[in-house]
Amino acid sequence: MAAGRVDVPRRSDVGKLNRVYGHVHAIPDKNGYDNPSNGRNLVAWHKNGFNLAPRRWGLEDVVRVKNDVTRILDDGAQQPPQKKRKFSPIVWDLEEKEVRISSRNRVVSAATTLSSHPSPCKLSNIVSNQAVKKQPVNGNLIEEVEHLPPKSPLADFGCVLYPSQPCQQFQDNEQGQDLMGKENCQAPNIFTSRWASDSDDEDGSQSEEKIRSSSLESGEFERDEFEGDRVLSNQRSCSVLSACQDEDMECKLDSNGVMDIDDMRDEDAVMEQSDLDVEEPAGRSVNMLLGCRSVFEYERLNKISEGTYGIVYRAKDKMGEIVALKKVKILDRRDLEEYGFPLTSLREINILASFHHPSIVKVKEVVVDDHDNVYMVMEYMEHDFKGLMDSMKRPFSTSDVKCLMQQLLEGVKYLHDNWVLHRDLKTSNLLLNNQGELKICDFGMARQYGSPLKPYTTKVVTQWYRAPELLLGAKKYSTAVDMWSVGCIMAELLAKEPLFKGTSEIDQLRKIFDTLGNPSEKIWAGFSELPGAKANYSKQPYNLLRRKFPAASFIGSPVLSDTGFDLLNRLLTYDPEKRITADDALNHDWFRELPLPKSKEFLPTFPPKM
Ligand SMILES: Nc1ncnc2c1ncn2[C@@H]1O[C@H](COP(=O)(O)OP(=O)(O)OP(=O)(O)O)[C@@H](O)[C@H]1O
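ok -> structure tokens follow
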């Protein structure tokens, strides 16, 4: 800190930090702004700006932010951090929104954001929700302000539960809670009974339901329990250590007994922080958290599907519009206790609410029920490609596939252009409506990536669609993982059959190698250094993919022109560096060669799946 400088942060300092980090809130206490003499308090504010999972902040973040804070305050000038950061323009500012949640027992009311309109009542409530905790950091004690456990899943992503009384009435948390219990009750409307119960049988449509279990596609990834969420919790060091042993992570306790984890999950965790940073808003920003309506606004019609992370229902709003409602599953109660909300769903809501593209499914709003279950209301799509191809008699024609591939590639290009990896592209995550529009859904595994690349978890992408670099244990990966999945999808659309149906990771690799030939250092620089490369695979030196997709066939094999085969080969290229990008794929000659891509309106329509 510059000598003689009065270390009281000015709003402009906070503004600078906000520009750098997106979410540094100066929370005034009753004496005005706190004194961030060495940046510690700003760090604390910043950390707690991330209501979602404050514990995901690692020590290196604290140190880095502290340094940046100090530099900014010292220089008195806007100075970007040294580290190169590239982020998507996703609006990751959910924690800035404070929302009164509507459910049967609560009244909807939007609140203004803390940063833009500080309000004494909200501040008092926030302050009363905080506890002070000491944590050793590099030998010093840093005072951290930590939020008490959230009262609702939504509280953890910015929805703060407020009773409907005027905010001035809240002096402390207890009182707030008390009032919460006595607050106004809305009379249940005609839909209440359908949503009030968790029972999915009550609508009597069980026989019509198509319940898809996650085991349908063999080798669906198991949710990485940590995903960077929990590794930074000092209290959970035992479980982390055992996880480290399981996952070959390097874990050490420093002299203060603080966990220092050096692994890809830690890196993933660091990047989680960037997930929440803001650069610029995307073209559309659904400000859904300004007021979560009640699920009782919708009439539940039937269950469409049950996946790993959610149950999807078909429902109708009061205007008669059909929508899809995805009820967020809390798989692990610890998620709720510790983080207030499943991270996968948080990512999904965040991304879908911020992105607007014809090939990305639209989220209209987020609603809650009277048990604080959270539902994403999405535009309704009549089909998913997995279900469709299971029931289709004949595969799609070449011009159909071209039309679908174009839409898929446009969606993937949009994601990649916006620094997002989907990481779970597969036919069941591609939806089709009766207007011939293909849309990508299920962003539970999606994440931002940056340059330079960081190591992330490899337990992503459903096994059949998983790129060889992931199967071989590469921790640094990028957009090419999605492009491999796109290649598998292209083959599946043409053949009406998944391309590589491995029964385990090793079998998946075997199936890939049997078809494409064994990779080598010659065609894939760096292959031999991958953790899985040393395993003993049977040797198959040739690329036999053409046998599966010949130029002509008398036995009903899916046919593919040389140009089409070239595109498929480029998508299924071993070396991720050489694998074709979405942009280049869209410009591939196959889309200009006859038969031309069919226009959406002329795609075949299919009977409804209800
Ligand atoms: N907007 C929608 N309209 C119609 N059906 C949908 C919609 N979104 C999802 N579905 C259906 O629900 C299924 C599961 O959705 P989704 O993949 O989002 O859930 P999930 O729990 O994340 O599933 P998974 O186990 O594949 O990860 C889809 O395959 C599709 O059949």
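The first helix runs from residue 11 to 21.
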